[in-house]
Amino acid sequence: xxxxxxxxxxxxxxxxxxxxxxxxxxxxxxxxxxxxxxxxxxxxxxxxxxxxxxxxxxxxxxxxxxxxxxxxxxxxxxxxxxxxxxxxxxxxxxxxxxxxxxxxxxxxxxxxxxxxxxxxxxxxxxxxxxxxxxxxxxxxxxxxxxxxxxxxxxxxxxxxxxxxxxxxxxxxxxxxxxxxxxxxxxxxxxxxxxxxxxxxxxxxxxxxxxxxxxxxxxxxxxxxxxxxxxxxxxxxxxxxxxxxxxxxxxxxxxxxxxxxxxxxxxxxxxx
Length: 271
What we know:
- By secondary structure, the protein is α/β, with parallel strands linked by helices.
- The protein has helices spanning 14-26, 31-41, 51-54, 73-77, 79-90, 103-108, 118-124, 131-142, 155-171, 215-231, 238-256, 261-264, and strands spanning 42-43, 94-96, 112-116, 146-147, 179-184, 196-199, 204-208.
- β6 and β7 form a beta hairpin.
- The longest helix is centred in the C-terminal third of the chain and has 19 residues, at 238-256.
- The model has no long low-confidence stretch (mean pLDDT 91).
């Protein structure tokens, strides 16, 4: 599959050898062999070899001379076997890392990011989920959030929602949140449920109806979402954690000053 050097003891260009090896791997459909490959190409490699740094499994290795189909498409056709091998080595919640800035969001969604040697990443992504696709799917799910009208809430839920709105009005009065609503929020992923959500575009906070059964879970969820509003940062980041501390401190101060005394009389602290 590549031109030999004039002395015939090696490839004329070494990169061509690694491309040819990539073409061979694309056509492998043996779970045990693919486990060996995955151990070589993850970063850091579980099994350090020359393949860990040099193997090429991407669009640039060309296509099958008979069908013209790109070699990495064979990976897609055998995706189930590749996914089983990946899962056997790294676990069912592992996704391919394309950018470490996505790591915190991936963790929040109940998954973990795993680096893959960059010349092999494109090929493996034919079968294995990558971090940005996981996040995109989550955003598409959450875009289907459905507001629950106040009239459909139980008295306890409505009372706790009123507390959340009063806290929001007090804490964010200088950089206003547009609204706080009870909602049916789809799960962010198949691994985690969603207690609340902040929509940056509309500056709106959504609280899942089941969180409104008790004032404690209502306030906990609200603090988390108001911290997103304040920091404009993703979950599990330092900025978001710092904002949660700041918002919680503001809530405590306002409570100590009696700002919510009347409202607190009508709420149930525990659901």
